[in-house]
Amino acid sequence: MIATTKAYACLDCGKCTAACPISRYDSGFSPRMLVYDAIHETDIEIVHDDRLWQCLTCASCETICTSGVRYGEFIRTLRGDASEQGITGQCTHGGALQSLMHIMASDDLKQNRLDWVPKQLETATTSDTLFFVGCAPYFDSFFSNLEVKTRRAAQGSLALLNRMGIIPAVSPDERCCGHDLLNSGDIDGFKKLANQNVKEISKTGAKRVVTSCPEGYHTLKVEYPRYLGNTGFEVVHLTELVAEAVAKGELSFNKTKRKVAYHDPCRLGRMSGIYDEPRAILDAIPGLTVVEMSHHRGTALCCGTQSWINCGAINKQLQVDLLKEAKATGADVLLTACPKCQIHLKCAMHDEVLGQDLKIKIQDFAGFVAGALAR
Amino acid sequence: MSNKFKICKDDFEPRIVGFVCNWGAYSSLEMAGVNKLKYAPDVKLIRLMCLGRVHTGLVLKAFEMGADGILLLGCPPGSCHYEFGVDRTKESVAQMKKMLNLLGLGSKRVHLVEVPPDDGEFVARRINAFVKRTKDLGPSPVKYAPSQIEMVDPSASLF
Question: Measuring CA to CA, which of A29, A118, A283, B15 is 20 to 30 A from B87?
Fold first, then answer.
């Protein structure tokens, strides 16, 4: 593990600690100390370490590391070792999301997940392109008390695809992509879900998979081939397709006077390098003012928590920081491409003391862009 | 052995978990016991201080571990020992039903019964009705047996 993740190359320079959002509030946590301990401690000591579960896997450290230590993979491997011994992080939401993912790994499940598809939009049962929806239908029902509206991202994505002349297949039995199980160390569960998804995607005959969720994008594109070998389809993010269409002048938008700030989700920005496409799309909307938060692109702040494990005071503080930064830009709307960011930030707005100071409208990227399309 | 007790091969014995409120429903179950009423043995009852404790995570975990149905024995509105437990339960039940519908298990696999205190006959009747309903629905399609979950042998003694 130390060899494959290049942990041996750590120079102990401390840049990772300076970049790490957790280290900002918890002086006991430091990515390089964890690397040091993994090398010097015994295997048993390191898997019992609480710090393993605090990491947000936001890739801030990985981006800044001059020695190229693959910290995300490092922490994932350690979590995998720990969970093999029955050690896990603290599940948030009563473990409901973990159980949901495990239930979805069953073969014979016949889900009712397509009720979000509006009548005026077109989908197909077989097509060259498949739209991978992700967990949006579940999130909206589970987090209805937070007024989470991630279904609109799916609807907006479909509207954009239709407008570009693509009628994608949408699988009725698509599973969760497995991102959260993988990042919390449950490799078996992840592989089960991944195999189900590859099977479901191949049923539709799709050669190209479009996602709007950044976690789904990164997992399907990078992790599926790593764990399953060749999957037989290419994965593109919606913003890549839309940016291409915008550059060719195929899409036209209505004029608007709104002012928006765009938040780079870690899976899309730091981990996949997609920074320019969303901004190019927003620039194409006439009259729209796009403002940047002080931390943007590679240094974008984290939405505070990951994989439905370990959410506490530090995580809440990180969300407060992000929302305060968004408020400071004076934007009417904070746009994010990731459903998880929306859930976590809307949750932070329910703070009884700070809530009103943090209130800002949060919308998903695809839904916003689709709403601006000219009729 | 007479035919009456012969168990058919295809006879489906559902695995049902019942969460029971300590204050209202459990006293009714005790009353059923005192009155020597018989009810279906398929429900494994778990006593809690309040049904407001049962959240979607617990119910989904039970389904993950192979439950075919979940029976919630709670209190009628206005009679909660903690005042707010009934409202919490209703919110959670609405949430879990939505999730079960999406998963394709169907909302009928979870059932909330408002049990009046000390009514043994009522609770016995409702347990039997739910067991019959779950039998009609058939086994749950969920099959997930990871190494982490230790299945408890039901025949083993706890003491």
Answer: B15
Q: How far off is chain B from A291, nearest CA to CA, in Å?
A: 37
Complex ipTM: 0.90
**What's the pTM?**
0.90
Amino acid sitting at position A306 = Q
Q: Which two tokens stand for residue B47?
A: 């006593």
Report the topology of domain A7-84. Fumarate Reductase Iron-sulfur Protein; Chain B, domain 2 (1.10.1060)
List chain B residues with CB under 8 Å of A145: 91
Q: Which of B43, B67, B44 is nearest to B141 (CA)?
A: B67
Rounded average pLDDT over A2-19? 88
* Chain A interface, best mutation among B17, B19, B61, by max A CB count within 10 A: B61
A119-138: pLDDT as tens digits: 999 999 989 999 999 999 99
Instruction: Tell me which fold the domain A93-242 belongs to.
Output: Rossmann fold (3.40.50)
Residues 6+ apart with CB under 8 A from A107: A196, B143
Answer for the pair A181, A88: CB distance below 8 angstroms, yes or no. Answer: no
At residue B154, φ and ψ (nearest 5 deg) are -65, -20
Residue A168 and residue A121 in contact, taking contact as beta carbons nearer than 8 Å: no
